[in-house]
Sequence to fold (276 residues):
Amino acid sequence: MSKSFDELVTVMERLRAPGGCPWDREQTYASLSQYLLEEAYETFDAIQEADKTGDITHLREELGDLLLQVIFHSTIGKERGEFNIDEVCDGISQKLVLRHPHVFGDEKLEGAEDVLRNWDKLKADERAASGKEPKRLESILDEVPVHFPGLLEALKVTSKAAKVGFDWESADQVFRKIDEEINEIHSAISTDERVKVEEEIGDLLFSVVNLARKLEVEPETALKRTNRKFRERFKYIEDKVSDRGEKLASVGLDELDRLWDESKSETGGSAMLTAR
Fold:
C-alpha cells in the first residue's frame, strides 16, 4: 500500500484502540451504514459539481470521506477477526482481473455491450465455482435491493427484465406509454381518487425511467442535475426580489415567471419548467 493509505489505516486503528475516541470505538457495521449512504450521496453531488464547474476540490474531499467508511468497516472487521483492509483490496483486485479477461487474458471482446454480457456470465461462473449455496430467489428481480432509491430501483428492475427480453423495442413505444399514463392521471384526477392518482403518478415516473434507460441516460444523474438547475434559477429570483427590498411571497406569479425566464438566460441551459 502507499504511505498515505497506510497512515490512514493506522489513524483509524488508533481511534478505535483503547484510549482512542469514545464515539469511534462504539461504532458497528450497522451504526455506520447511514453514514456510508450519506457519504455516497455527497460524493455523487460532488461529481455533478465537478462535471459542471471543473473544480474537483469537493470531489477529492468527498472521495476521502467515502474511503474512510471503507477503512472504518475494515478496521471493525479486523478487530472481530472477520476480514481486514488487505483482504478487501485483494478481493476486488482479483475480481477485476478475473472479470476482464479481454485485458488480462486472451479473450477478445469488441465493445462495451460485449463486456457487460461477459461480466454477467463471469459472475454466474464465479458463484458456481465457489461452491457457495446460491441465493434462493423467487424472482430474478430479487437480486435488486428493495432499499434502493426509487429511481435506481426502477432502473435496475427494468434492466433485469430487459435482459430476458421483457422490454419495449424502441423509445417511441415508451413515449406512447408515457402519453397513456398521462391520460390515466387526468382520468384519476377527474374522479378525485387520491389513491388512484398516486398510483398513476408512480406509473408515469416508472415509464419515464424506462425512457431514460432506452436512451442510455442515467435517471438519477439527470434528475439531480435538474434539481441543481432549479436551485440556481430559483436563487436568482430570490436575489432579484431581495435586491428590490420586497418579500418573495408578495410578488405576483406573472413577475415570478418573468424573473424565471430571465434567470434562464442568465444561468444558461435549456428551458426547464415554469415557476409554478
Observations:
- Confidence is low (pLDDT under 50) at residues 270-276.
- The two ends are 54 Å apart (CA to CA).
- Residues 14 and 147 are 33 Å apart (CA to CA).
